[in-house]
Design goal:
The protein is mainly alpha-helical. The protein has helices spanning 8-41, 47-57, 62-73, 88-113, 116-124, 129-139, 141-156, 160-166, 176-185, 189-218. It has a single domain, classed as MetI-like (MetI-like fold, Orthogonal Bundle), CATH 1.10.3720. It is built from 10 helices and no strands.
């Protein structure tokens, strides 16, 4: 019933969920793609350790991330003076920490899978190092779109970290996953199921858009 009549509170929760996750994924792309390209192309002391940390970060438990961000933003923490705890900004920060390793890992693997002769061909045409990086990212765009979809799916479905740093405050930091947890605990299973369906449909719609773009780029 809530879905049919577009309940205002439901729409607000859905919009906050999409906005927070989209902002986190965008920031993760800005950070993760250059880092992944760098790790995929350059050889330097400690690279193996960094790659191991990235791979480990791809499976980082969300509650650990939530605890880390909570301690960072708590009043006694190093960033406590900013007053970001229990705000959407804190939720975005937690989701960025979760998404960045995914983007770096997929980007690094995609760059490494490109034919090394392509690197030499681009450089032989007179490209600078920066132009080489840009061209390789374009060549690996299909994998990068997959990284985008994976990162978005991971953060929009996350509950442990966002509930720790966001507090699940009605009208301020309540997103779809935390609302589902709340309604389930209160025994409102019908509403929890409805919210789950909305979240599932939203995730499918966004990933369908990513897939359509990916196929278009492939053609």
């Amino acid at each position: 019933m809530l879905i049919v009549r577009l309940d205002p509170e439901l729409c607000e929760i859905l919009w906050l969920s999409l906005w927070v996750s989209a902002l986190a994924v965008a920031a993760a792309l800005v950070i993760g793609v250059p880092a992944g390209v760098f790790l995929g192309l350059r050889s330097f002391p400690g690279r193996g350790l960094l790659a191991t940390l990235v791979n480990a970060g791809m499976g980082l438990p969300p509650v650990v991330v939530g605890l880390f961000v909570f301690l960072l933003l708590a009043r006694s923490g190093p960033l406590g003076g900013l007053g970001l705890l229990y705000t959407p900004a804190a939720m975005v920060l937690a989701q960025i920490v979760l998404a960045v390793p995914l983007v770096i890992g997929v980007t690094m693997a995609a760059i490494q899978d490109l034919d090394e002769r392509l690197h030499l061909q681009i450089l032989a045409l007179g490209a600078s190092r920066w132009q080489l990086y840009v061209k390789l990212v374009i060549e690996a765009r299909a994998s990068l779109l997959a990284a985008l979809a994976a990162a978005f799916g991971a953060v929009i479905s996350e509950v442990g970290a966002v509930i720790m740093v966001g507090g699940n405050i009605r009208g301020q930091t309540r997103v779809m996953t935390t609302a589902i947890v709340l309604e389930t605990r209160q025994g409102n299973f019908a509403l929890a199921i409805a919210l789950s369906l909305v979240l599932l449909l939203a995730a499918v719609a966004v990933n369908a858009a990513f897939t359509a773009v990916q196929r278009g780029r492939g053609r």
